[in-house]
Structure formats: structure tokens, C-alpha cells
Fold these 2 entries.
Entry 1:
Amino acid sequence: MQERVILHCDLNNFYASVELLDKPELADKPVAVCGSAEERHGIVLAKNMIAKKIGVKTAQTIWQAKQICPELVVLDAHYTLYQKYSEVVRNILYRYTDLVEPFGPDESWMDVSGSVPLFGSGEAIAYRIKEDIKAETGLTVSIGVSFNKIFAKLGSDYKKPDAITVFNRENFKEMLYPLPANSMIGVGRHTYNKLRRLGIYTIGDLADSDIRALRNAIGIIGERLWYYAMGLDMSPVVAQSDMPDVKSISRSTTTKYDLEDNTDVWKTFLLLSESITKQLLENDFLALRITVMLRDSTLMWETYSASLDTPVHLSLDIARQAMKVFYENYDWKCPLRSVGIAVSDFMRSDEPMQMSFYDAQDREESTKLEKEVMKIRERFGKQALQKATIIDFSEKINDYKSFL
Ligand SMILES: [Mg+2]
């Protein structure tokens, strides 16, 4: 079988680098991109190299970060802008293969095995990509080149910024086996603790372990990690076109009686949002755009949209944003018969900084929300929600007021 050529491209300090593109005066200062300072999102999402060296860490509060680095320049996050750059970069990658698998907004795997005759070795292709991205966006990238996805990802981490690392059959043991086991994807804090209890500290230790002992000690993940360490990962690069394509998620409901005031609408939005959140979580998405759909007794649907600066996935946030769009656009000249919410412009939630940000900030909020939604459910009953796809909009499916 022909050896695969896999690349992993990782944009360096993505959010901070995008922010600095049009602020060259900040290039030699420590900079952090933060959730908006006045809200509860006042937390570090990304930092530049200078801030990183001083000790600023992702998920610190702005206050903590400034204790460590008083001269830190704090910038607001602009997700719509990051998404735009993410797309531009992805289109550069598509020049070299259509086998591109995005992993968060700033990382992608590529299978360039079929492109070698056209563009040269994996390393040569990596070099071209790196220079294309730099010339066309001003951003730098680290690229790992190897014969499987796991080692390619280790390669993009190995040397950065603006660097290429090749792990081939000849050098991978020498270069990778001294690295700590938790530098490998799939080894989180819990797994690493378990491994260390077994005396396994490095990737080399993993490769030297007995696969059955690993499996007995930490389960199926142990077996998989052994394969990874041995360079036996065969998982394919999955092109985005082969992934399930969800472009928007929407829910709406039609009531037998009119919705007459903001409270009616808010309650309905909460119910719709809960169902949207469930599907967002299933797909591992955060949404950057919200659309509110309204229909009065004339049976004409009106839609209003807004782009969000902070991505949403929790139902209380979705309901709040929907309410904001609603306030800004509806004047209650007549009562409403149907309302709906759609979310779109998705980004993946598996980006580490995003996750830590939400874990830290939103746990309390989401618990409160669960309770609120449960209370509403008790009052209105489960039937208050229907999937938009199965609703015939001309029918009065839900007797909303009867639940009151
Ligand atoms: Mg990155």
C-alpha cells in the first residue's frame, strides 16, 4: 500500500493574530483577546506570543491576567471576522486537495497523498501552503507532515510559529517518543493521570507498554493510544463535503390563540431555544447568527436576523438574543399567531479555548436555565414544542394558551 501523506495545519494564535493584522502598533505589546469586559464573558480567549511568555493564560479572567501582566492590551473578540479568515485560509488549502478536514476554526487535516505528483513532497506542499497563507492573509501557520493524522497533529505543535515539522518512518521514534504522553490528541488530564499511575509518562512509554495491560487498566482508549504511539493510526481525513451538512437549526410553533405581549413571546422563545440547544449540542456547534420568524393572523411570515459577536449554544442565551431581535423589530401593531427561531453560521465547539471559556463561565447560568425550562415544561406540557420540519405552518397545532 502506498504511504499516506497527511498534513495538519494550525494557524498560530489565531484570534490574537487576526486582531493584530490591522493594529501593527500593538505588534510588540502583550495582547489578549477577551470576551466583552462588561459582561460575564470577561475572560482571556487568546493571547499573542508576548503575553504568553509573560504568563497570560487562556480562560484567566481579565483581572487575573492583568495581575500577571499589568501592561496587557485587552481587545474584544470578533467572531464573524475570525470566521471570515478561517474561510479564506480553508480556500487556500483546497488548492492542494479537496480532502480537507476542519478541526475548529484554525486547524485542518489534509490528505495530500494524491497531490504529490502535482506539487511535490508533503514538505514541499506544506511550504507552499505556509507561504500562500502568509502572503494572502498576513497570518502564520504551523504545519505537521506525517503518514497519519495523529503524528501530523503532533508535528504542527512541535515547532511554532511559522514552521514545518516532518515526522517520517525514520525519525518519528527519535523525535516523538521523548514527548510527554499528554501532548498527543486523546490524552486529556484524566487519562494522563491514569497513565502516570501506570508509570507511563512519554509517548515512548506508551509504545513500550503491553496493549492488553493498557486495555485492562484504562479501557478501550488505552488500546487506541497504543496504536497511536506505534504510528498505526489509520483514521482517514474526512472531507467536509462528506460530513453531515447542517446549515441552520430552526424551531417554530403556531398557537391557537394569539400571543399578545412580550411575556408570551419570551416564554415561547425559551421553549423553542431549549430544543435548538439540544440539537446544537448533538452537533457540537456554536451559532453566530440568529433569525426570528414571526407571523400574525394574516399568515404572512416576517423574518429578522442579527449576527452575534459572541457565539451562542445555551438556550437562555439563544432566547435572550432572539428577544433582542424581536424588541428591535416588532412593534405589537397586531398580536402574533406563530413565532420561530433559527440559528446558523456555525462554528465548532471543540476549540479548546472556547470550551474552557464556557465551562468556567456558564455552568451556573445553564443550571439556572435548566430549572427555568423545567418549570415552564411543567406548566405548558411537552407538546408546546414541535420541530419546524414537521409543522405545517397553516395549521394551528399547539394550543399555547390552554397550558396557562
Ligand atoms: Mg491554532
Note: The two ends are 67 Å apart (CA to CA).
Entry 2:
Amino acid sequence: MRILIVGATGTIGKAVSNALSDQHEIITASRNGDVKVDLSDPQSIGRMFETVGKVDAVISTAGSGKFGPLDQLSDDDFAFGLGNKLMGQINLVRLGRDYVNDGGFFTLTSGILAVQPNPASVLLTTLNAGLEGFVRAAALDMPRDQHISVVSPPAVRETMEKMGWGRGGVLVADVAQLYVDSLTAEHDGLTIDFHQAA
Ligand SMILES: NC(=O)c1ccc[n+]([C@@H]2O[C@H](COP(=O)([O-])OP(=O)(O)OC[C@H]3O[C@@H](n4cnc5c(N)ncnc54)[C@H](OP(=O)(O)O)[C@@H]3O)[C@@H](O)[C@H]2O)c1
């Protein structure tokens, strides 16, 4: 397959790219990547698809939003998170459907905070849950037998180590396997996590 990975330079994106590159043609995109795209800018997403052309799958491992308790999140924090992680990935689907071949795949990224919130995750929990709802409904309305699912990563060990948060979490290579698994029709509309994959 010809697969576009948005966020391919990140911790998860690199592992997904490694897991797929033996058997597939991989095109990598991000703000500073091979192909340039800023998910928070719909025009930039449109330009990316014009540059890349037709693909069999689009995987997003990008998207950010701020941690913090509700009374410390500003209007700008909400606007940034909504425009970046939530609408950025939704726009990837809205603007990318014409560029994905018949029977192709979209895989988005949410996160465990959707279902295991903490007091500082109110914005990320909202964004992640919104993405999972979007995918559940969009799967009923995809053209030309296209498929869509969302991976919900757990805390990644390499990220925890990088952030100095201890040695918990799941190895990123194992998380990457969830994205490999997403490229089948049986996951249509689903949130893919270790619980679902077990
Ligand atoms: N790591 C974890 O423990 C964990 C757990 C649960 C969920 N997640 C979710 O998984 C996703 C990836 O996490 P990660 O840890 O791999 O992140 P990361 O290491 O910070 O990488 C983020 C990637 O996205 C790209 N990116 C950031 N903003 C972008 C934008 N506006 N437009 C296009 N590309 C953009 C970055 O490249 P450029 O800087 O070149 O744009 C980079 O390739 C995020 O949505 C995160 O919330 C992560």
C-alpha cells in the first residue's frame, strides 16, 4: 500500500513508520517533515494532498492539546486544542477522502485519557472522546468502501522516560502494532486499544 503518515517524526509516528516500511511505501508529513503540513490549517492540509496525490491509507499520529486543570485553561488553550488535535484530524478526513483509493483506510489518534481521565486532562479527554465519536459516526458515511478507525494509545514508555515520569507505560513498538492492525476493514468505526485488541 501507499501510506501517508502525518506526524511521522514523533515518538509514535516513527515507530509506526518503522513497523510498516518493510512492506509498504511510506510518505511522511508534519510541520517540519519531508512533506510539510500543519494540521491546524485546512489550506495546508489541502496542499499536502495535492502534493502527495492518491494513497491507500492515511495515518495520523499528530495532534496536541494542553494539560491543566479547568480553571487554568484559557480560551486560547481550548481553541488551540480543538483546532489542532480534534479539527486537524477531522479535516484530514474531510479533505482527504477524495485522495484515498477505493477500499482505503484512515487511522486517527486519540488517547487513553478519553476513558481514564485525571484532573489535568479535561481538555485532552474532551478532544480524544470527540475523535472517537467522530470516527464511530464517520464510518457509517465513508465513500467508496473507505474505512476509518482511531487508535487510543496508552501512556508510552519512551515518552514517560523522556518526560522524566518514571518507567511505566507500554513500549512504543507495541503501540505501533495497533496502527498496523488498524489497516483492516474489521476495525471500521472502532477505537483500537489494548483492551479491544486483547
Ligand atoms: N506518547 C504518548 O504517551 C501518548 C499517549 C496517548 C496518546 N498520545 C497521542 O499520540 C499522538 C502522538 O504522540 P507522540 O508522543 O508521538 O507525539 P510527539 O512525539 O510530540 O510527535 C508529534 C508528531 O506530530 C507532528 N505534529 C505536531 N503538531 C503538528 C501539526 N500541527 N501539524 C502536523 N504535524 C504536527 C510532529 O512533527 P512536527 O513538529 O514536524 O510538526 C511530530 O511528528 C498525539 O496525538 C498524542 O496526544 C500519545
Note: Residues 6-13, 30-33, 37-40, 61-64, 84-85, 109, 111-112, 153, 155-156, 159 surround NAP (CB under 6 Å).
